[in-house]
């Protein structure tokens, strides 16, 4: 059983893909990013997969002067069901930059699939993880 | 270094000094004519050649004593050794130059009266020697029968070095004359009944271990005395042998001492954290010089042998960066593209490549131009103060965020007047690069130039040959009822073409012919003959001839078109039900069959002679190919290697087929990896066939192509997720999604060519393949593992049962397999 609009593997194996000009360009999903500011913190609720395609959007959102200078930044990941290594790279980078600048960072509400990847890469010991946003705010201040 | 010309510093006397001093000593005595003249020259040598750390003579007194028993008239036996005096011993003493008044003449026996004037009484010296066992006692006959060295000190304690053991022995004898500092003495027999002794009164404290280094010198003295005395060649040979043995013993001991010093430093450093730096410094000093020499040699031969451009430039860059002591280094090099355009690539050593990713390629600024035009070496203690620095817009110097560079060294790589590239080294502190660094890097640059030229020539030839091979080996067709794949790999270091081939020929009546063959010889000629034989084989196959008849006809053809060119071949026909296999083999390695239960056998019952021996009948054998069976036809390159007998290779192949098998593409790749591992001496052809258990379990496949945009990543993920659910494998969807995500993102990020995602399912596994067209681009290797994207490959490795890459026509495939059972 194959998906209807995919072409069957009829062309010979062992050749490179064909001309790019004829291929449709997938646009891909975008993230929904909702930010809440507190006096000394910001919470960004992320919704959607964080991957190679959407990571630049997330980083763009977080590199505004306001976001950079807030003493505590919490990413609420409770609506994120997928992360790849690009996302992990972004988290590690954010964490390091903020720590170097004396500012706090946390990930809240990681879902099982995301948590599995964090464990596989041993990042659970590096990144500050919290069960909920409330807990992150309570423990970080 | 303790050695200055022919002067040797006794405070830093080591192995090199021992060897050099021995040589100079024997040269000094050369042509002396008599034993006495030789003894005088020896005394002069020790007086003038041994110096202290300021270069002043180290020996206040240097005395050479010769002795023989007075009751043995030596004059008759030894004309170079005149006999005077009487009593138990006849003794002569020789003083070194510039010691003040001296005479070379007989000393009184028993050391009772000095024969040479000097600061210290000769009789005292002789007594000290006697007490140390280095000189015959009164009437005691021969002293110790072998050469010995002793260091005596004024406290009445002496250290005697004998046969590599050192012992402090309290002496009851009167000590060395007061104020004498140290007395270094060595003595031994010259030949039967004749002795020599050398006493050196040194003004400074000497380390006890110096005796060890003077042992070979003592042997040199003996050899010199023997040579001057016109003794037999045999005696001199024996003395020379003793000298060599003693030197060898010293070298061995020193080597093990250095080794144990290094070992000791290591173990100590664990306990003494504070002194760790000091220990490391000493250890690295010991190793540094050796390492530099080793590295230069290693780099030279490694570069000469390296034909793969990417590996070559990275290797050269890493080595040059290490040798120059730079914080980081880069090698920029020109590559000719397919259509002749030249483009600039680079590798980085010492830091992560990402430190440079964000900058554009360097331009011909005033600083860089000098190197890119091949005008010469630029070495600057501080490039930011160089008059050429900072003149070019927009940055006027290093761009913001560039790693800081003060010390700068750049060396062009030039071959036959063409600039091939350039080495650039930087260090954040000024004044780091010396003339020595410049020389070392220039050495590597000239080796790299030759190697680059070789690699480019090789690459062009190999590509041309591969192109020919591609035309001769067209893609195999798909056949109902069986799943097949094939591989062709030219020999790892060949010029790309070879005589191996494989073929899969659907026959008119629904049967299918399977062929693997090997034309002996290499290169384009073998490939051309192969092309003809393969065409002939196809023609006979289409006639519906039996395997034995096809081989018989081919044998005649080979004899005809390439007489004397030995060719082997395995030809099989599979019936329309895909269950009965008829096989004939002409001198070829037997195909191997794995039945559905996993037992493996070689089809080697009937093997005929190779093709090209004229018309003759070939025997045939039959085998049953049950559902679930697998069949592999291959050429000898797969199992034969210079370093491994063919039997061993066949045993390994049998073991691999008997082991876990899965998707045929992955099987092929992993077997090739295990058996050949990129080290195969000969080209390899493989034809691999699987008869699926039933049509319900036949391979299902989904394929989609993408342009290299980031949107391909989520789209491919969704495709895989949906397909896995349709296949009833939803529980594995997350694993496959993550693997797909990482591999596709990697292709988008690095290959930047259109890519194809293919997901295939077989009985017990799912295979994902991502194909791109990026072999044209040399892969840029980063020295350190902290590369961005490292985590992605780590995730693939953690989740997939197996994964790998393989090069294909005009691109490469990255694949990963997940088990469904």
Automatic annotation (TrEMBL), chain A:
- CDD domains recorded: STAS_anti-anti-sigma_factors (cd07043)
Source organism superkingdom: Bacteria
Q: Which residues form the STAS domain?
A: 43-140
Q: Which GO terms describe its molecular function?
A: anti-sigma factor antagonist activity
Where is there biased composition of kind Basic and acidic residues?
1-11
Which segments carry the region annotation Disordered?
Answer: 1-28
Q: Which InterPro entries match?
A: Anti-sigma_ant (IPR003658), STAS_dom (IPR002645), STAS_dom_sf (IPR036513)
Q: Which NCBIfam families match?
A: ant_ant_sig
The family line of this record is: Belongs to the anti-sigma-factor antagonist family.
Q: List, alphabetically, the PANTHER family matched.
A: ANTI-SIGMA FACTOR ANTAGONIST TM_1081-RELATED, ANTI-SIGMA FACTOR ANTAGONIST TM_1081-RELATED-RELATED
| Record protein name field | Anti-sigma factor antagonist
Question: What does UniProt list as this organism's lineage?
Answer: Bacteria, Bacillati, Actinomycetota, Actinomycetes, Kitasatosporales
């Amino acid at each position: 059983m194959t998906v209807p609009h995919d072409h069957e593997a009829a062309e010979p194996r062992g050749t490179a893909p064909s001309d790019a000009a004829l291929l449709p360009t997938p646009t891909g999903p975008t993230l929904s990013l909702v930010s809440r500011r507190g006096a000394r913190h910001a919470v960004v609720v992320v919704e959607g997969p964080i991957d190679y395609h959407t990571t630049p959007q997330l980083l763009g959102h977080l590199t505004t002067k306001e976001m950079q200078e807030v003493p505590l930044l919490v990413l609420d990941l409770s609506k994120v069901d997928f992360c790849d290594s690009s996302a992990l790279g972004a988290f590690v980078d954010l964490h390091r930059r903020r720590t170097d600048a004396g500012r706090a960072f946390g990930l809240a509400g990681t879902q099982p699939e995301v948590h599995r990847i964090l464990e596989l890469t041993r990042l659970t010991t590096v990144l500050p993880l919290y069960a909920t946003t409330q807990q992150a705010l309570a423990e970080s201040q | 270094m303790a050695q200055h010309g022919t002067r040797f510093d006794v405070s830093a006397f080591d192995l090199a000094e021992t060897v050099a001093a021995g040589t100079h000593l024997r040269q000094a005595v050369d042509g002396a004519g008599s034993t006495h003249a030789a003894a005088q020259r020896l005394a002069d040598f020790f007086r003038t050649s041994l110096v202290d750390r300021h270069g002043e003579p180290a020996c206040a007194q240097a005395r050479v004593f010769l002795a023989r028993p007075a009751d043995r008239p030596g004059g008759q036996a030894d004309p170079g050794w005149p006999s005077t005096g009487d009593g138990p011993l006849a003794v002569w003493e020789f003083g070194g130059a510039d010691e003040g008044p001296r005479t070379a003449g007989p000393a009184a026996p028993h050391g009772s009266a000095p024969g040479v004037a000097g600061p210290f009484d000769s009789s005292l010296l002789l007594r000290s020697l006697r007490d140390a066992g280095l000189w015959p006692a009164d009437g005691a006959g021969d002293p110790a029968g072998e050469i010995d060295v002793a260091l005596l000190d004024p406290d009445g304690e002496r250290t005697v070095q004998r046969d590599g053991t050192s012992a402090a022995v309290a002496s009851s004898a009167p000590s060395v004359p007061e104020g004498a500092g140290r007395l270094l003495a060595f003595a031994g027999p010259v030949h039967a009944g004749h002795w020599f002794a050398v006493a050196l009164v040194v003004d400074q404290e000497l380390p006890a271990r110096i005796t060890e280094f003077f042992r070979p010198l003592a042997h040199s003295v003996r050899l010199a005395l023997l040579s001057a005395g016109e003794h037999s060649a045999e005696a001199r040979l024996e003395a020379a042998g003793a000298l060599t043995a003693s030197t060898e013993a010293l070298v061995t001991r020193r080597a093990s001492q250095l080794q144990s010093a290094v070992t000791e430093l290591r173990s100590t450093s664990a306990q003494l954290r504070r002194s760790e730096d000091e220990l490391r410094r000493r250890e690295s000093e010991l190793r540094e010089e050796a390492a530099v020499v080793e590295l230069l040699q290693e780099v030279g031969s490694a570069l000469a042998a390296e034909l793969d451009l990417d590996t070559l430039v990275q290797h050269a860059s890493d080595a040059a960066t290490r040798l120059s002591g730079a914080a980081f280094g880069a090698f920029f090099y020109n590559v000719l593209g397919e259509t002749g355009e030249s483009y600039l690539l680079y590798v980085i050593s010492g830091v992560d490549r990402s430190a440079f990713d964000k900058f554009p390629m360097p331009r011909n600024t005033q600083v860089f131009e000098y190197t890119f035009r091949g005008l010469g070496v630029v070495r600057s203690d501080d490039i930011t103060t160089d008059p050429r620095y900072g003149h070019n817009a927009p940055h006027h110097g290093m761009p913001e965020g560039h790693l800081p560079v003060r010390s700068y060294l750049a060396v062009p790589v030039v071959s036959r007047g063409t600039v091939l590239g350039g080495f650039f080294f930087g260090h954040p502190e000024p004044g780091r690069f010396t003339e020595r660094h410049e020389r070392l890097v220039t050495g590597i640059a000239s080796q790299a130039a030759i190697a680059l030229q070789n690699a480019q020539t090789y690459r062009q030839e190999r590509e041309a040959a591969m192109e020919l091979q591609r035309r001769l080996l067209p893609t195999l067709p798909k056949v109902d009822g069986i799943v097949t794949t094939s591989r062709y790999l030219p020999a790892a270091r060949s010029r790309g073409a070879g005589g191996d081939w494989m073929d899969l020929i659907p026959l008119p009546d629904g049967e299918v012919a399977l062929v693997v063959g090997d034309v002996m010889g290499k290169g384009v000629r073998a490939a051309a003959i192969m092309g003809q034989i393969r065409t002939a084989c196809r023609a006979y196959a289409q006639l519906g001839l039996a395997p034995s008849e096809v081989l018989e006809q081919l044998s005649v053809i080979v004899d005809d078109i390439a007489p004397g060119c030995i060719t082997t071949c395995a030809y099989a026909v599979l019936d329309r039900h895909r269950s009965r296999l008829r096989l004939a083999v002409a001198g070829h390695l037997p195909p191997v069959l794995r039945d559905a239960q996993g037992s493996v056998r070689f089809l080697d019952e009937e093997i005929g002679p190779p093709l090209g021996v004229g018309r003759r009948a070939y025997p045939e054998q039959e085998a049953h190919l049950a559902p679930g069976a697998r069949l592999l036809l291959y050429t000898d390159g797969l199992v034969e290697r210079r370093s491994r007998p063919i039997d061993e290779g066949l045993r390994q192949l049998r073991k691999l087929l008997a082991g876990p098998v899965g998707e045929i593409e992955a099987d092929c790749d992993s077997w090739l990896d295990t058996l050949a591992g990129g080290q195969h001496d000969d080209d390899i052809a493989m034809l691999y066939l699987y008869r699926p258990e039933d049509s319900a379990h036949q391979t299902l496949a989904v394929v989609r192509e993408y342009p290299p945009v980031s949107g391909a990543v989520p789209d491919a993920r969704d495709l895989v997720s949906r397909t896995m659910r349709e296949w009833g494998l939803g529980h594995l969807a997350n694993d496959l999604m993550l693997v797909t995500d990482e591999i596709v993102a990697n292709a988008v990020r690095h290959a930047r060519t259109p890519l194809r995602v293919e997901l295939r399912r077989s009985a017990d596994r799912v295979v994902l393949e991502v194909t791109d067209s990026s072999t044209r681009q040399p892969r840029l290797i980063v020295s350190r593992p902290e590369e961005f994207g490292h985590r992605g490959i780590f995730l693939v490795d953690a989740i997939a049962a197996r994964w790998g890459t393989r090069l294909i026509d005009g691109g490469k495939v990255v694949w990963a397999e997940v088990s469904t059972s």
